[in-house]
Design brief:
With 126 residues, this protein is of the alpha+beta class. Helix content is 33%, strand content 26%. It starts with a helix and ends with a helix. InterPro entries: YdhG-like.
């Protein structure tokens, strides 16, 4: 999953939460080594079986958003939320699109297992 394009992007990244971006990336790469990591929508993005499903949103300097989705192409709308979230981390933009927001390192550390569970569950619904 080591991608030179992503490495170059992150080396050049100017974001107040760059350390936290790298922390999240490390967790994702460690917990999900089979994912493909690319730059898409001007941010690190992850694919499972060539389907985009997890994308960083670094547009705001005060937070990092992880967008969970089902790819760039429209799919039939889900009538229910794609997964259950016992952690409360997910903010639902649609039944098949959710956002996790982090603003500091300790939030990421404290929710590492929740994040892993959410990503695992999301992958099973793709």
């Amino acid at each position: 999953m080591n991608n030179n394009e992503v490495n170059t992007y992150l080396e050049q990244l100017e974001h107040p939460l760059k350390a936290e971006v790298l922390q999240l990336r490390n967790y994702i790469k460690t917990d999900f080594p089979s994912l493909t990591e690319i730059i898409k929508w001007n941010a690190p993005s992850y694919q499972y079986n060539q389907l985009d499903f997890l994308t960083f949103n670094l547009a705001k300097p005060k937070d990092i958003k992880l967008i969970l989705h089902r790819g760039a192409k429209n799919k039939e709308a889900s009538l229910t939320r794609l997964i259950e979230d016992q952690s409360g981390l997910l903010q639902w933009a649609a039944n098949d699109r959710a956002i996790i927001t982090f603003t500091k390192s300790d939030e990421i550390t404290n929710h590492q297992e929740n994040l892993k569970s959410i990503i695992q569950n999301w992958i099973t619904k793709l």
